[in-house]
Amino acid sequence: MKIVVLGGGESGFGAAYLAKEKGFEVFLSDRGIIKPEYKKLLQENNIDFEEENHNEEKILAADWIVKSPGIPKKADIVFKIKQKGIRLSSEIEFASEFTNAKIIAITGSNGKTTTASLIYHILKNDGFNVGLGGNIGKSFAKMVAEGNHEFYVLEVSSFQLDDIQNFRPMISMLLNLSKDHLDQYNYNYEEYALAKFRIAENQENDNFFIYNKDDEMSENLLQKLAIKAKMLPFSLKEKVKEGAYATENKIFVKLQQEFSMNVEELSLVGNHNIANSLAASIAGKILNISDQSIRNSLMTFQAVEHRLEEVAEISGVKYINDSKATNVNAAYYALESMKNPTVWIVGGVDKGNEYAEIEQLVHKKVKAIVCMGIDNQKIIDFFKDKKDLIYSTSSMEEAVQVAETVAEKGDTVLLSPCCASFDLFQNYEDRGNQFKNEVKKLINI
């Protein structure tokens, strides 16, 4: 069988590596430049590849094509593949065909990385043989090729779910929905939401689907969709008979028996993280993990990098890195969890943001807005009559310097950009790391 992999990053190399391990004829094609570390791995594993080109003759001769999630589904080569009727899969689909391990798959507009990492922490703490991968930055396919894990916890994006055929997790999870990546879904919110719901489309009645009962779009679509898996809701607003919910002071998980613990014992702060903890706890109880073990894991989990990560406190000012907040909903969660007057660093590549969703929170929590990007006009235009202190900057160095000048003792400087990073940075990690480096420079002034 001839396998062609499109894209030469973490996902692409992983798929090519697994295909090679399985004895298939493999060719990897990337229209861009492949990073040196992946090029080296391809050469070391004798995997045929090309870069800065798509050899259509070679690609369209494939029996099965694996597409990296970064390649737009509207790309010309994708259109030609579909025209020819060649099977086109995401890396998670491809890898899942070669493992009998139980899969716990997490999707949603926000909180995927935190919740996937938390579930991995819960399972690992309880002695499970478990791997963590997917959209979180570690190739699922490479782990399947190298390991013999009995469980995989996968963070899954809508782009990965666009290209599944048989992918069937034991436990699937849809944390929330908000308007994100709409440019890839014809600016149609329901089309994007339905892509997320594909996580459950192949599940049977012996599987589980965990969902957010407070999410309006999820509730609406559940009226239309025929999901076969056992559905288990979580809620911050109401009690549920089976699933999980929170009151002001406690969380409750109800599956056969009831497990509860105090909210103040959770290591993660903010309502969004209470929701993430509820979802993760349901998964733990499905797998018969003890109450004490789940409680211990929820108390000891450390927040993921670039997600409400406290960097430093300098002269009484806290600096928090939330670079992973690439949409309005994520920034909403960050602002909601702020306890002190906040200097908010925001901006980047706008993905169709509607800032009205956070207008009240900004009014209540934010003392100054520091815009950071090549084009800050949309943010400035929306907030100029609502906030007196708005600054425009075009680099991380400038943004942090302005924020440091404006912030007073007792304030918080929050990087929660609300936007994609590609105008000034390689990715959200690069943006977060630059923020941390600039903050650390302030310590040495």
UniProtKB/TrEMBL annotation:
The keyword Transmembrane helix does not apply. Residues 306-418 form the Mur ligase C-terminal domain. Pathway: Cell wall biogenesis; peptidoglycan biosynthesis. Transmembrane segments: none annotated. It comes from the Bacteria. It catalyses: UDP-N-acetyl-alpha-D-muramoyl-L-alanine + D-glutamate + ATP = UDP-N-acetyl-alpha-D-muramoyl-L-alanyl-D-glutamate + ADP + phosphate + H(+). It holds the Pfam family Mur_ligase_C. It is an enzyme of class 6 (ligase). It is found in: Cytoplasm. ATP binds at G108, S109, N110, G111, K112, T113, T114. Residues 106-283 form the Mur ligase central domain. Keywords: ATP-binding, Cell cycle, Cell division, Cell shape, Cell wall biogenesis/degradation, Cytoplasm, Ligase, Nucleotide-binding, Peptidoglycan synthesis. GO terms for biological process: cell division; cell wall organization; peptidoglycan biosynthetic process; regulation of cell shape. GO terms for cellular component: cytoplasm. GO terms for molecular function: ATP binding; UDP-N-acetylmuramoylalanine-D-glutamate ligase activity. Its EC number is 6.3.2.9. PANTHER family: UDP-N-ACETYLMURAMOYLALANINE--D-GLUTAMATE LIGASE (PTHR43692:SF1). Belongs to the MurCDEF family. Cell wall formation. Catalyzes the addition of glutamate to the nucleotide precursor UDP-N-acetylmuramoyl-L-alanine (UMA). This is UDP-N-acetylmuramoylalanine--D-glutamate ligase. The gene is murD.
